[in-house]
Amino acid sequence: MWPRLTSDAEWAASRVAPLPPRWQERLLDPWSSRHATGDIYGANSELRILTDSLLAVRIPLDASDSTICEAAQTLAERCAGRAEVFHEVNALRASMVRIVLGQGIEPPHERTKNGPAIARMCCPMWWRRKLRRHHGRAFEAAAIALGLVHRQAGIYCSDETLKRRLAQNERNAASLENTIARNELGQEYTLAELAAKGPGNKKIRRAELMTRIAGFERIARHCGHAGLFLTITCPSRFHKGRIVNDWKVIDNPSYDPNETPATAQKYLARVWSRIRPKLARLGIKLYGFRIAEPQHDGTPHWHLLVFMEAAHEPMVRQVISHYALQDTPDEKGANEHRCDFKAIDWERGSAAGYIAKYVSKNIDGYQVGKDFYGNDAMVVSARVEAWASTWGIRQFQQVGSPPVGVWRELRRIETLPNGAPPHLVQAHRAVNKLAAVEGKENASVAWDHYCDAQGGVFCGRAARIKLSQVRGDKPGRYGDEPALRAIGVETLAPVPSTPGQFVLWEIESTRHDWEIVRAPKGRLIERGLADDNYLDRSTTTILTG
Length: 545
Hints:
Elements: H1 2-16, H2 21-36, H3 40-54, H4 65-81, H5 89-102, H6 114-121, H7 124-145, H8 159-177, E1 179-183, E2 188-190, H9 191-195, H10 202-223, E3 226-232, E4 241-244, E5 248-251, H11 261-281, E6 287-294, E7 300-308, H12 313-324, H13 334-337, E8 339-343, H14 351-361, H15 377-391, E9 396-399, H16 404-410, H17 422-431, H18 447-453, E10 465-471, E11 484-494, E12 502-508, E13 512-518, H19 521-526, E14 539-544
Antiparallel strand pairs: 1-2, 1-13, 3-7, 3-8, 4-5, 6-7, 6-9, 10-11, 11-12, 13-14
């Protein structure tokens, strides 16, 4: 009997060898217990099925970033080598697409022209980005399937993914610190200094979001609109674990292992894509914000703070409930948990204050204290960021109202020309009140004035002020048609002396030409910030604000 056990043990060890050490233990412990009971066939079959599903990716789950980079180089060369076999461009592209699909990667979109598409598939950097994303998601999906992502293990994301993301952020921060940007005026800054001045700075991002939310609330109060805070969650099959007795996590028998946080996010987006046109057909308009955040097992759910005309509130509730419960409406708990509404009571407090903790928790945990599960919000915000980055989930999205892109572009304009239209002057004054980083009162009175200048909170695409854009004169890296880039804002204004005629006002924003100078290769490799493929010294001219 002992030689048979030794053989099985060696076989089991070989099955889990390509997995991270913590995962090996997670798989071998139940295998050993079941094997010891005499159910040798059942133990081996279960381990084989589990490892087959976990190793269904071409790159091992425990692969290092250098391994991924090597695979990217090999696959790019393999695609380039197809040109020796296929000499007709369509056949060449189809051959490369087969290689891409064979790695579980999504190829360039079919609308992309042949030249740029082929250039992408022959580029090691393109492959590197794609493989990193695919590997990260495959790794995290496997962690969820093994029960390593929940409130009693790694909340929101696995510990390994968090560690990898923190290391990546550290490398990125060091790279920004070591990269110098020089503009046409001779001014030099590190990219870290430039990034700190924009929405990439978490404090500025949080302040801007709260400024816009507070502006929405003032509009709602002034107009007598109703406010709703609602939560939409996914059906049971998206959840790996269930919480019982308010603390213990057990396996959910309804869980579908093919579902991931990415597919759950697509499900929620699909539900909302049915709600919006239905409300539009009923003549109902909403404005506010949507926040996507993870539940303890990594499954996203949506919080929405939306405002509407008070008479429309009952119909809004009805429409949202209808579409949120279309999928498996009879499963246990669907009516109680799938869609939840809380009416905003203006007498009891601020709607912006109610949602502030959700905004802060999903950015940096500022002044939140503890999250819903009792964890320090400053700590778990890093896990939320790793979760969103891994699954490509957009955490914040504005619902309705004028576009924020124009708001940001107006902030690049120092002064307006004499005689500028009153609504443009009003919008420019509104956006330039945003001076405080933390969203103090002098910064929080701007968004509602901006919306009013644009034609009201319900103006949508009919906003008075739009981005002024031109097409660049240089093709993209892969030969794509030059993209449109913003150069300022534009608006139509009536000619006072000629009724029925309008003049187009175009105001350019302040922008600079930047030359990016990277630090020497040796200095970065010495600090572990680059690999051997990093350029010794490169300069690139870019357009930025």
